[in-house]
Amino acid sequence: GEAEVDAHSSPPFLKLKKPLQFGVASETKD
After folding, report:
1. Distance, CA of 30 to CA of 20 (rounded, Å)
2. Which residues are within 8 A (CB) of 7 and not within 5 positions of it... i.e. 6 or more apart?
3. Is 5 helix (H, G, I), strand (E, B) or coil?
4. What is the pTM of this model?
5. Half-sphere exposure (CA, 13 Å, Cβ side) for 5?
6. Which of 10, 13, 26, 29 is deepest in the core (most CB within 10 A)?
7. Is the distance from CB of 15 to CB of 9 less than 8 angstroms?
8. Which residues 6+ apart lie within 8 Å of 16 measured at CB?
9. What is the spatial distance between Cα 21 and Cα 5, in angstroms, rounded to a whole number?
């Protein structure tokens, strides 16, 4: 449902994934 819609939306999906990856990397580094 929602997940499918997000997957189809490249711009918003990437925008959300980018900050998420950075946050995870920061937490992992810490």
Report:
1. 15
2. 13
3. helix
4. 0.17
5. 2
6. 13
7. no
8. 6
9. 20
Parse the chain into domains and list their residue ranges. Answer: 1-30
Residue 12 CB partners (closer than 8 Å, separation 6+): 6
Instruction: Pull the structure tokens for residue 16.
Output: 């959300």
Residue count (the chain): 30
Local confidence band at 20 (pLDDT 50, 70, 90 cut-offs): low
- Is residue 4 pLDDT above 60, yes or no? yes
13: which residues sit within 8 A by CB, 6+ positions away?
6, 7
